[in-house]
Amino acid sequence: MRRLPVAVVTLLVLFIGGCAVLPPPPPDDTFYRLPTPAAAGRLSEPALPGVVEVVRFTADGVTGERALVHARAGGSHVLSSYAYHLWTDSPTALLQEALVDHLRAAGAAETVVTSNLRLVPDFVIQGHIKRFEQVAALGPAGRAAGAAEAVVAIELAVTDRRDERLVLLRDYEARRPASSGAPEAAVRAMSAAVAEVFEAFVADLDENGGAEG
C-alpha cells in the first residue's frame, strides 16, 4: 500500500479535527425599537407655555446600555443582560425621543424640542432612568420563562429656566404584564409601561399648571 505524504496526512487530521470541534455560529443580533403609543388625549391648553427642552435622559450602569436587561422574579436584585437582543439606541436616547413625541401629541407645551436644536428654552425636562427591565422567572440556561412583566421607573424633573425654579420633581413607576418571557413580549410591555409613566407625568403637569411642586 502506498503511503500518503506526511503533509497530506497532517492536513486530513487537522480538517477532521476542526470539523469535530467547530462550534456553531452565534445567533444574529436582534434590534428593537421602542414603540411609542399615542397619547390618550390632548390638553385643552399647554401646561408649560413656551419652549420646552427635553434633555437626554441619564441612567446608571447596565440600565443605560443597549442590551435588554432582565431580572429574576421574586425581588432579586441581580440584573443580567441579553447577549444578542439590543435596543436600536441606548434607553437614555430612546426615552428622550419618546417623551418629546408624547408631549407634542398631548399638547403639553407650545413647543417641545431636544438639545440638538440649541434653542433657548423656557423650561427644561430632565429624566433619570431607575429601572427599565424585564422581570421574569428563569428557566433552563437562565432564559426567561413563565409569567413576566416589564418594569419602568423614571425620575422626572421640570425646571423653569426663566427664574431657575423647580416646577416639578417626582418619581414614576409602572409595571405591565408581558404575554410571555420572550424579549419581543418584554419590549411590547415596556412600551406600554413607558406610556403609563408619561401619561401620569402629563397629568401632573396639567394639575401643577407651572406652579412650584
The 3D shape can be described as elongated
Low-confidence stretches: none
Distance between the termini: 94 Å
- What value does the average pLDDT take? 87
Supply the number of helical segments. 3
Main sheet specs: 9 strands, mixed
What's the helical proportion of residues?
A: 25-40%
Number of strands: 9
Helix/sheet category: alpha/beta
**H/E series, N to C?**
HEEEEEHEEEEH
Radius of gyration: 24 Å
Q: Indicate the proportion of strand residues.
A: 35-45%
Summarize the structure.
The chain has helices at residues 6-21, 91-106, 183-208; strands at 30-32, 48-54, 58-59, 67-72, 79-87, 109-114, 123-138, 144-160, 165-178. It has 213 residues and is of the alpha/beta class. A hairpin with a 6-residue loop joins strand 4 and strand 5 (79-87).
Kindly describe this structure:
This protein has 213 residues and is α/β, with parallel strands linked by helices. It is 27% helix and 38% strand. The chain has 3 helices and 9 strands. Strands 1, 2, 3, 4, 5, 6, 7, 8 and 9 form a 9-stranded mixed beta sheet that branches. A hairpin with a 6-residue loop joins strand 4 and strand 5 (79-87). The longest helix is centred in the last third of the chain and has 26 residues, at 183-208. The termini are far apart. The model has no long low-confidence stretch (mean pLDDT 87).
